[in-house]
Amino acid sequence: MEVGDTMKKLSDLFSTDKDVLVKDIKINSKEVEKGDMFVCIQGVKVDRHDYIEEAIQNGASCIVGSKDIVDCKVPYIKVPDTNKILTKLCQEFYDFDKLGLKIIGVTGTDGKTTVSTSIAYLIGFDKCGYIGTNGCRCAKFTKDTPNSTPDATLLYKYFKEFKEAGCEYVVMEASSEGFFRHRLDDLEFASGCYTNITWEHINIHGTFENYVNCKVQLARQTNGIFIVNKDDKFYPKFAGASNSYLSYGEDKENDLYIKEYNVTPKYTEVTFVYKDLEYSFVSPLLGKFNVYNLACAMLVCLSLGFDIETLIENAVNIDVSGRLEMIDLGQDFHVMVDYAHTPNGIKSLLEFVKNLDINRAIVVIGSAGERDYKKRPIMGKTVMEYADYAIFTYEDPRSEDPYEIAKQMTSELDTDAEYEIVIDRSQAIRKAINMAKSKDIVLILGKGNETYEKLKDKTIYFNDMEEAKKWLVERLNKEAVIE
């Protein structure tokens, strides 16, 4: 089918005799263009009803809100709750039911990006689009996204664009915050999975139980087979909430059984057992945790009817940007950038690294501002349990004092712990690279390949990989001159 340009009358979307044309749906008044509908959602800190006048000045053809508004200059539609109707509104506007896409959801504390990206590689980007931390991507386009799970106005626009690009499937990271903010309301998933559950995002959810329940919502909204990690203690919650499920793990009773694996610094040899047959192959994904991520991705695709031999052929091409990404400019030590930012993710990564043939592990790490402050001391202790030296720095401090965040991360460390605080992230990376000796490894954690830092009053361009390369070049040039 040809999706074509989207344009609806207001009366197509609501019971009204106002036949103004709606070109697009916006929730940010600054992004409104002529002919757009402006929906006044209630944000975490902002009430969009306060920006109706700005939206109209920018060309809004109509307004949807949940408050009584007097003398609105354009048609105004009042609804009980703008946040809760937004997804349905976007589904109707973009004719989502007619697209025929099969949506795959991936949730969990760690591994969402790796599993969802792996699924897209296994199916093929010509057939499967990806939405998540690393943007919005298929064979025909790549673009940045503001959130791992975008708001409905963007999400359904992406779905439409994927259909126009020839995709039959879309795999997306379904974050707990996405469910909490109602971004995924009314969306049925053809398949879903979860990776693991550990402490995270309590600042948003209030309690760990609320956090888990938001994750479990993916199982409730999956109308096909749900995939569970049976080696994670929370799997009964997900299995119990699903229509039907398949499991993966290291026990022989699993539907996909991880029989054995051999992790090397450059690849991983794995053997899976599926329907009583063994399949051995080499994966480019490194570490035990990625054996689990790959098993999860494979089982999702198998549950959708894909052939295992084809999946194994495609598995050798998997490349997840910002995850265990090595930077090699010819130096005699290792530099790795990774997105790990939870205690469990950091622990899994450092366990893998310490098993490599290295001397010291030097870690550069921070903790995001306006996020769960209770995990900060845990992160600090986890880092120092495995690292030989740590440099604590800022990471998206937002309105918080980055030095105070670093102090919280180091508050429970032993007095003899080998670490320092360097608030400027660029200089922290530089310090780590300059102190590295032969066969050391420098680990720059928390941001992966993200291209921004959120400061108190602005967002700046910043990329850990580019910074690492810049300071590596500086060091190597200096060494060349000395020689």
- What ranges have pLDDT less than 50 throughout 5 or more consecutive residues? none
Note the beta-strand portion. Answer: 15-25%
Mean pLDDT: 94
Determine the N-to-C terminus distance.
65 Å
Number of strands: 25
Structure description:
With 483 residues, the chain is α/β, with parallel strands linked by helices. It folds into three domains: 8-81, Udp-n-acetylmuramoylalanyl-d-glutamate--2,6- Diaminopimelate Ligase, Chain: A, domain 1 (3-Layer(aba) Sandwich); 96-315, UDP-N-acetylmuramoyl-L-alanine:D-glutamate ligase; 325-482, Mur ligase, C-terminal domain (Protein-Tyrosine Phosphatase, Chain A, Alpha-Beta Complex). It contains 17 helices and 25 strands. An eleven-stranded mixed β-sheet has the order 10-9-8-11-7-12-13-14-15-16-17, sandwiched between helices. Strands 18-19-23-20-21-22 form a six-stranded mixed β-sheet, with helices on both faces. A four-stranded parallel β-sheet has the order 3-4-5-6. A hairpin with a 2-residue loop joins β8 and β9 (135-137). α11 packs antiparallel against α12. The longest helix has 19 residues, at 464-482. The radius of gyration is 24 Å and the shape is globular.
